[in-house]
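pinging the channel bc i need a second pair of eyes. not urgent but kinda urgent?? the chain im working w is below, pasted from the shared doc
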Amino acid sequence: MEIINEERNIIEDNINGILWAYPQLKQVVGTFGLYDANFCDDQIPLISGGGSGHDPADWGYVGKGMLTAAVMGKIFIPPTKEEIVKVTKKVTKQKKAFYIVKNFMADVHSFDGAKKELENAGWQIGMCIVADDISVESLSLKKRKRGVAGTILVQKILGVAAEHGANIEELNVIANQLRNCVKTIGVAFGGSKLPGREQDDFTLASNEIYYGIGIHGEPGYCKEIFKSSELLAHELISKLKLSFHWKSGDKYALLINSLGGTTVMESMIFNNDVRELLSIEGLNVSYSKVGRLLTSNGMHGISLTLLHLEKPSWVQALKFSVDTPNWLA
């Protein structure tokens, strides 16, 4: 059972609720784009987005110090090129903007199309494609490199850089530095569900977990019987260790993200296990955040993100106070 009205009005009803709760956000007419009404257009605007159903991403990070605007599409479907262009033109007169895009083919196609159209009209557009997911395909073992919860850390660091006056070239440099330093792996106890549909996108036995799932309900790489939070944390950390090749003393930021249906208590128990295991590894966790940051429409699952803090300015940026609906410093 879901708290909805007519299925065809789900996104409009959601946006109206957001606007009522956060009046500092305004909607761009003719789109599902929301922007910061207090943006002074004296810095490079950061714009992100994707399909709806990942709330509070990405609208929850619109505000001073993070995103200037977020452009949503339909459920799990990215906005069109035309919608992205319309939002970009609404929020700035500088003819400059920077896009932060999750690495899904349709998302990249829409944002890249908007970028090319605006550049042909004389704009300067920077773009960062986040590909933090280290999950693999179950048969080929090929890395999927999707853009998932690590995107929020990228938005935070680039947002603070833009707030401090970084130009597009400087934002591109930071984005390229971050690209291989942020990695995420997720696990689910049940699938996500499109509103109005009775069936989840995948089903699991009551004691099963599914490693490596995607934020649109894409299948994972391995199903196992759940035994404990500690063993779950051990599996995800092992995969991240293989990807990072860390050594004792390395500095990391930690993000534990509920995919929507995971309780605060579950997240905190998992957080405790992760912190203990990372301590055994000898890692210096200089920043951590636990919450419901990027979801999959109610999926009972959790993801673990680590960011290798190669630059001291990154942890400073993560701790920097911002004014958005969903980031609490």
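so The helical segments are 10-21, 81-91, 105-120, 150-163, 168-179, 229-244, 264-280, 312-319. and DSSP finds eight helices and twelve strands in the chain. — does that match what u expected or am i reading it wrong
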